[in-house]
Amino acid sequence: MDTKKLTKIALLSAVALIFGYIESLLPPLFLPGVKLGISNIVLLFALYRLGYANAFFIMLIKVAVSSLLFSGFSVFFYSLSGGIFSLLVMSAFKNKYFSVAGISI
User: Fold this and answer.
1) On the CB side of 31, how many CA atoms lie within 13 Å of its CA?
2) Stated pTM of the model
3) Angle of helix 40-49 versus helix 52-70 axis, rounded to 10
4) pLDDT at res. 9
5) What's the confidence (pLDDT) of residue 72?
6) How do residues 18-32 score in pLDDT, each as one tens digit?
7) Distances (CA, A) of 103 to 22, 32, 41, 100
């Protein structure tokens, strides 16, 4: 991996962490634990620009660091399963007839 790609991954991971922190400050929508998914915008951008493997790596970094900083160990597994599921759905719809806005919704 070259330095330029590693720098992009580090910056996108930092932006995803910031969005995740901002999202944690918002009150829950309907059910406890249900969030807007603002940090998934960064994952969608990474999926289109860097590919699936790097987007998955950014998601792992975001989930691991945000669970250590903002929540406990049990939340790690919920966040990891949600991140994997959302990334799989985004990558499945990427090659279909959906636009970027349609995938983000």
Assistant:
1) 2
2) 0.84
3) 160
4) 93
5) 76
6) 998 888 888 877 777
7) 22, 24, 10, 5
